[in-house]
What we know:
Helices cover 80% and strands 0% of the residues. The protein is an all-alpha fold. The protein has one domain: MFS general substrate transporter like domains (Growth Hormone, Chain: A), CATH 1.20.1250.20. Helix 3 runs antiparallel to helix 4 (93-107), helix 3 (69-86) runs antiparallel to helix 7 and helix 5 packs antiparallel against helix 6 (127-153). The longest helix is centred in the first third of the chain and has 31 residues, at 2-32. The termini are close together.
Amino acid sequence: MLRWKIAVLVGVAIAISYLDRQTLPVAVNAIAKDIPLSNVQFSTLQSAFLFSYAFMYAGGGKLSDALGTRLGFTVIMIFWSLACASHALALSFGMLAVSRFLLGMGEGGGFPAATRAVAEWFPAQDRASAMGIINAGTSVGAVIAPPLIAFTLGFANWRWIFLISGALGLLWTAWWRRSYFVPEAHADQANRREMLGEGA
């Protein structure tokens, strides 16, 4: 049914977000060959991400409410994908910190947008199941990050990891724009039930 495909679509976005946030911790040894990082600096990079991430939970939700789910998630994903890719341009700790902060800002809007999509497409009795599918993306992203990064480092510079991760987000955005739409508010109840699969 279409609504479950929407859940998978959003779950993939969450998986990408967890892949993006794992890039620096997994590749830190390779990065340190070009940009030496002390333990304190590495902790600062992690804190920069988490601080902006937590702050943007509220801001990202407000953005999705203002722009609507389709456009809001589009803006959020493009922003965090470009922020992820920007790590590849870093020449110093300070540049990495800025990229990390921007990545947290973008990803902080992911779950609020996902929740809004579920509210639009799922009746109350199915929303927990839909969120379960979406939340599974957190584990998928975390699991695929280490082997993907190790594979990339086998033949390319660490900067390519961030470029590839950012590109995945932009590809997802094209998929999102093609696949997601808000159920028509003016559809009659029978058509709405058929569209959402509530009678199946």
